[in-house]
Amino acid sequence: xxxxxxxxxxxxxxxxxxxxxxxxxxxxxxxxxxxxxxxxxxxxxxxxxxxxxxxxxxxxxxxxxxxxxxxxxxxxxxxxxxxxxxxxxxxxxxxxxxxxxxxxxxxxxxxxxxxxxxxxxxxxxxxxxxxxxxxxxxxxxxxxxxxxxxxxxxxxxxxxxxxxxxxxxxxxxxxxxxxxxxxxxxxxxxxxxxxxxxxxxxxxxxxxxxxxxxxxxxxxxxxxxxxxxxxxxxxxxxxxxxxxxxxxxxxxxxxxxxxxxxxxxxxxxxxxxxxxxxxxxxxxxxxxxxxxxxxxxxxxxxxxxxxxxxxxxxxxx
Length: 317
Ligand code: FDA
Description:
Oligomer: single chain
CATH architecture: Alpha-Beta Barrel
Mean pLDDT: 92
Bound molecules: dihydroflavine-adenine dinucleotide
Number of strands: 8
């Protein structure tokens, strides 16, 4: 059931006719306002400043777009990521930029993607030289066909001493093995449940199995081996049971609050993020900005069917 629902949302995210209709409809603007900081780099950077000042919450900036096959849009996306890195460096925030490989050229040429990612990671390293903070180019993880290329891209840049981080998805059966390798590398890994759909051979299908795998992965991410390797766990979920579980395992294995973080999405249960920050936990929000907001918003609908009811009501009222 979860797979069918998510697959339909992915279909909606990829449909360019639907995207154009939704992004131009006034009825859907509540979704944009809820999940997106604004159209410009400045809007994204200012939201990041406000989150830090008001609640002590850090940000990861994300110029939206996915599966981009238009060379002009790829060039604009890469430029926006560079601009975002500069804008947040100027404001002395973490230079933390999220990127999907398919938005910076993977659809056209994997080599081109590597070139863009390399330049971005070098730029983040240069900007970070004089500032304290958690700086990195964070690779988002897309559909199953992108697992190997994204991990390889991350590892290549990491081997060059560049500040990179990787997202792994608990719904994928392979993730325990991938995580073990990243623990050995002492990486920085963001664990998510997974916003894509894959068949039963590749992926766990039910919520219970995915949660069970999330717990096992959290045990590994906060293991004594992971700590000794300098691994940095990022628990990216709005699931409070998993937050509590991660904190419990962290305490049991002697991790301090500066050695890991929680990450959530702008506009999704920000009350939970605030509560964690008030408890002294390190918290970050994923802050999307740009014009191309429909694919991001429709995934949020996939995660919470209540949003589909709100959307239907606003379209027909
Ligand atoms: P889960 O679905 O278990 O719900 C937990 C609670 O949060 C429930 O109370 C639920 O109602 C509420 N909730 C969840 N989503 C909501 C929403 N949209 N609106 C309102 N309430 C909501 N995925 C991926 O495949 N690749 C990636 O790179 C990333 N990157 C990423 C970064 C960050 C920072 C986050 C937080 C998430 C991602 N994801 C992702 C998405 C992730 O895979 C997953 O789809 C969502 O986080 C939803 O799962 P949760 O575990 O957060 O909540």
